[in-house]
Design brief:
The chain is an alpha/beta fold. Helices cover 42% and strands 13% of the residues. The chain is built from 15 helices and 9 strands. Strands 1, 4, 5, 6, 7, 8 and 9 form a 7-stranded mixed β-sheet that branches. A two-stranded antiparallel sheet has the order 2-3. Strand 2 and strand 3 form a beta hairpin. Helix 6 packs across helix 8.
Length: 358
């Protein structure tokens, strides 16, 4: 019996090893030429939906916070769905239908991306498919399964890729950013953190232009996995940088911010973001980009919003047109899922440890 058991275990191990030998991460494809009016970016969405004349911009910012954040942000979507308002033409509309942009970080990115993909259908499937499911337990179970050990040992395929596969199975069904373009949902801006610099990385074609890559082909599950890749617990999600292959040039409007001795004010935040993005310029010295949980750089998902507003103000003062020139009112709903843990640590000589004391 002992020999038979050992033989079976050895057989299982060999099958897992052979099954995982060819495990490689999904590779984001390059683009040959930047097309400023194409791809998943706000300008292209504006042109397609013909909402260039809107004078009110409504933004939802979904924070990080695991399943709690996913559930809280979903509750906000349900509330906005049930809230009736009168639009500028005197029509009764749902407040949810007036939302223009949704930012999502970590747990909040799942709700944002899932709504962008499924739209109204999300309200029928999200609770059973994701919120009431033991997502963490199932990922742990797959991590401990011998069938995945060889893949997980690969330097090119980590725990976040395993998680992305699971997210795809239960929520995203093989969808990519190309599928978001075809929908009528608000612009979804999920974000992660650049592990090397600590700067924010937003999943939009504007950012992917800089690394000369096609966001349309990126699975939504990988974006969600990167946005929620808690360091140490999950591995980083890796993208390939192809900078120099798509004839990209810095837009003329960036010159006052990046090249001038005295850049315009008030744009300090936006300038930092522009400079961080330019760090992807040399694909020889930096051929890869490793992304982790977006909450490391911005757990509220508000920095993208604030940077954009700051940039718009500076550009307007310089006489440069932007996609937001007709906007007169901006409404931002910040969905902050931050909990309030005990902070009486200073009452004890012992510092807080990895496991909370009762």
């Amino acid at each position: 019996m002992g020999r038979l058991r050992r033989s079976r275990l050895l057989g299982i191990g060999l099958i897992a090893l052979l099954g995982g030998c060819a495990a490689t991460r999904p590779v984001n494809p390059p683009i040959a030429q930047v097309e400023p009016q194409a791809g998943y970016r706000y300008e292209a969405r504006q042109a397609r939906t013909q909402d260039t004349g809107k004078d009110t911009l409504i933004v939802l910012a979904f924070s990080g916070g695991g399943t709690r954040a996913a559930a809280f942000s979903f509750g906000v979507l349900e509330f906005l769905r049930q809230t009736q308002i009168t639009d500028s033409k005197g029509r009764a509309v749902r407040l949810l239908d007036e939302v223009d942009i949704i930012t999502g970080v970590s747990g909040g990115s799942f709700t944002a991306l899932a709504y962008g993909l499924h739209g109204e259908k999300l309200f029928d499937i999200y609770e059973s498919a994701f919120l009431k499911r033991d997502v963490q337990g199932e990922i742990v179970s797959r991590t401990l399964s011998p069938a995945n050990w060889a893949k997980l040992w690969s330097t090119a395929w980590g725990r976040s890729e395993l998680a992305a596969q699971f997210y795809d199975e239960i929520l995203f069904n093989g969808a990519t950013y190309g599928d978001l373009i075809r929908g009528n949902a608000p612009m979804i801006l999920a974000s992660a953190t650049d592990l090397s610099t600590g700067s924010r990385f937003v999943f939009s074609q504007n950012t992917f232009d800089v690394i000369c890559s096609d966001l349309n082909a990126l699975p939504l599950s990988r974006a969600a996995s990167a946005s929620s890749a808690v360091p140490v617990v999950l591995s980083a999600v890796t993208l390939t940088i192809y900078r120099g292959t798509c004839n990209i040039r810095k837009p003329a409007w960036t010159a006052p911010f990046l090249d001038a001795a005295a850049p315009p004010r008030p744009a300090a935040r936006a300038i930092r973001t522009l400079k961080a993005t330019q760090s992807y310029a040399d694909s020889v010295k930096r051929p890869y980009l490793h992304l982790v949980d977006g909450g490391v750089a911005d757990n509220l998902g508000m920095r993208s919003v604030l940077d954009t507003f700051e940039l718009i103000e500076a550009l307007s003062e310089s006489g440069i047109r932007t996609p937001f020139d007709n906007v007169r009112r901006i409404i931002v709903f910040v969905v902050n899922s931050l909990s309030e843990p005990a902070t009486n640590w200073d009452m004890s000589e012992a510092p807080p440890g990895p496991v909370a004391r009762c």
